[in-house]
Fold:
Amino acid sequence: MFRLTSLLAMLVVLTGFAAAVKSVPATEVAIQLTGEVTLVSDIYGILSDNGITVNVGDTISATYRYETTTPDTNPLGTVGDYSHSTSPFGFSTATAGGLAMGTDPSSVDFLVEIVNDHGSPTPRDNYLLRSYTNIHNLPVTLEMTHISWQLDDSTLTALDSTDLPLLPPNLDDFDQESGFDMSGEGGMLEFFLVRGVITSATLIPEPTTFLMSYLYPRNSFRVYTFARI
Structure:
């Protein structure tokens, strides 16, 4: 009888806790990426002439962060555009071999785009990140820099809405035709491109996310967490 009473009390507490959590808006989501370089294009020597070495097979490591309550600015029902203009959102780090880049915290221009059943005659699902203003470890001035990651699904099963996800994408559900890119362009249109494939996307949890990920499993593609105070 004591065990049954204790179990019922625990269930009541967990049920109340879950209901309370659902009513609290999620805020920041941070995701860690790991991958491998598959292409290096540096025909103008922007990397090599400045002591930056990147080779096919090198490890890619990146961390990005976004705000889950960011409004969708795209009027299309099949495309969700979530633009961020303040720090700490965007790529806090992105490295490939000796190249290091990241979203400029003083001038954030970071987009998360979620595409569900969009396009004609061949619709697709897509998960896309783009950082348009970035800092880097090159000792030269670049006119333009870009960090991006695109996932593609032609089966239309990876996503079921254009809502901003609260968990990392399931890589098994997508192809990576474009993959993860780090690029830069100089004043004379000279450029470099480092491209790779991401093999791991992992949530960097807030303290309460451990319990929330248990209460709301990953395959639901939704998780609730407390707002940061």
Notes: Residues 7-24, 208-229 have pLDDT under 50 and may be disordered. Residues 102 and 193 are 15 Å apart (CA to CA). Helices lie at 2-22, 209-215.
